Amino acid sequence: MTDHPRRVTRALLSVSDKTGLIDFAKALASHGIDLVSTGGTAKAIADAGLKVTDVSDLTGFPEMMDGRVKTLHPKVHGGLLAIRDNTDHAKAMKDHDIPPIDLLVVNLYPFEATVAKGASEDDCIENIDIGGPAMIRAAAKNHGDVAVVVEPSDYQAVLDELAAHKGATTLSLRKRLAAKAYARTAAYDAAISNWFAATLKIDAPDFRAIGGRLAEALRYGENPHQKAAFYVSAEPRAGVATARQVQGKQLSYNNINDTDAAYECVAEFDPAKSAACVIVKHANPCGVAEASDLATAYKKALACDSTSAFGGIVAVNRPLDAEAARAITGIFTEVIIAPDASEEAIKIIAAKKNLRLLLAGQLPDPRGKGFIAKTVAGGLLVQSRDNAVVDDMTLTTVTKRAPTNTELTDLRFAFRIAKHVKSNTIVYAKDLATVGIGAGQMSRVDSARIAARKAQDAAKELGLAAPLTKGSVVASDAFFPFADGLLVAIEAGATAVIQPGGSVRDPEVIAAADEHGIAMVFTGTRHFKH
């Protein structure tokens, strides 16, 4: 490859997103660059009064098959792939009358957007671009001579180089554009392949591609010495990726991770039935509650562990109102995420300039399908999202005493939370509020002890005569392997238990519950979260 700038004499433009197209085309023309284009792009350029050659006139073939075949031609790909300093390539161009194409401007058919809006299978397939990716890959391969642009945000960088280098682009820019081009086609193909896998109900395709678009480079990762960035995938799931940041400083890696955890948890609660609030710290809920209004739900959630809530993330399942905004801003909070917010609430939060307010538009569907992935050394672990919801489970009473209606309501509430707490998980709940949460311990009995101790600390802070675990219910994300964890919960004051069941020692655990007059129900569904 040569290191000197390459003069742009001809540009081929074929775009679905016409943002900035006309101004860019005018600027290219001002440098004496010949414009070649296709279909609607050519019409838009011509309508703007610019001279443009239709790709059909370049190739000598008309667009056909509803536009499926228009750029798949040697005169297009030869013009993109020919190495300008290669004598054999130059001769082939001359012999076959192939003009060079020095700049390719293509953005692809909007496949991801088509899928996101729930279009029919036929519409999705028609929005799979063929000629675009083929041209992009050809131009990117030949970046020694050709510049390729895949989105309007790079128009200005190209124009700056043309102005600085008398109508030429530098190898440095062409390399950067080529790298971006291959990443774009990779993400595009990932969206298509994952759509096919979902459509065909293939849980483990032979190849799994995961792609995303840079939302923003982050200051650092989990720790200051780690590099990090936030990428948005093609999955149309409401949350931190789709949210509009109304105010506050840039989100950190940990903010994004914690906000996602909070919003996924609060989505378990139907806003038509109750107001709900989740407070998260270090990816685990430290307080969750339901109430008739958001302010009350927040205060109940905060009472569970106000120490951990300091500097936490708050998620609510209804539009944020002024009363809730005033309550939440009473202590230091990093992020608030809600489906929406009133203008008064936004003004109240504006007084806390560093507090981030995110409005996601809607809640994610806790029953929604999809997959999640994490990296391990040399590979990816991929699994379907945990979309099991306690309302859909059959609760089987396994003890002599069945839970009361009040206990049953709290048991369902507690099991919703257990789904979103790192394993091993123990959640104490009372009156639709968490009163003690034990997370991420190596043994379940330790989680039960920690949650009970937190309830004791909260009682002392609130000036209560006894911890709120007295008369509470308890949820476990997986079965009790021994009766010891259950006995800790009983000692803390729990009167009813919800757990998946399935241990070889279930009879021992059930016997311990019966001995103490405790009600216990099995869900048959485990909620491990690592």
Strands in their spatial order, largest beta sheet: 10-15-14-13-11-12
Shape: elongated
The biggest beta sheet reads: 6 strands, mixed
Whole-number average pLDDT? Answer: 93
Strand content: 15-25%
Helix content: 25-40%
User: How far apart are the first and last residues' alpha carbons, in Å?
Assistant: 48 Å
Number of helices: 19
Which structural category fits the helices and strands? alpha/beta
Oligomer: single chain
- Radius of gyration, in angstroms, nearest whole number: 29 Å
Q: Which parts are unreliable, with pLDDT below 50 for 5 consecutive residues or more?
A: none
Q: How many beta-strand elements?
A: 23
Write a compact overview of the structure shown.
With 530 residues, the chain is an alpha/beta fold. The protein contains 19 helices and 23 strands. The mean pLDDT is 93.
Q: Layout of helices and strands, plus pairs?
A:
Layout (H helix, E strand, L loop, with lengths): L5 E2 L2 E6 L5 H10 L3 E4 L1 H9 L5 E2 H5 L14 H8 L5 H9 L7 E5 L3 H6 L4 H6 L4 H11 L5 E3 L5 H10 L3 E2 L1 H29 L13 E5 L11 E4 L11 E4 L5 H14 L8 E7 L2 E8 L2 H11 L1 H4 L2 E5 L5 H7 L4 E6 L4 H8 L5 E4 L11 E6 L2 E6 L11 E2 L7 H14 L7 E4 L4 E5 L5 H19 L10 E4 L7 H9 L3 E4 L6 H10 L3 E4 L8
Parallel strand pairs: 2-3, 2-5, 3-4, 5-6, 13-14, 14-15, 21-22, 22-23
Antiparallel strand pairs: 1-7, 8-9, 10-15, 11-12, 11-13, 16-17, 18-23, 19-20, 19-21
Helix pairs in contact: 4-8, 8-10, 12-14, 14-15, 17-18
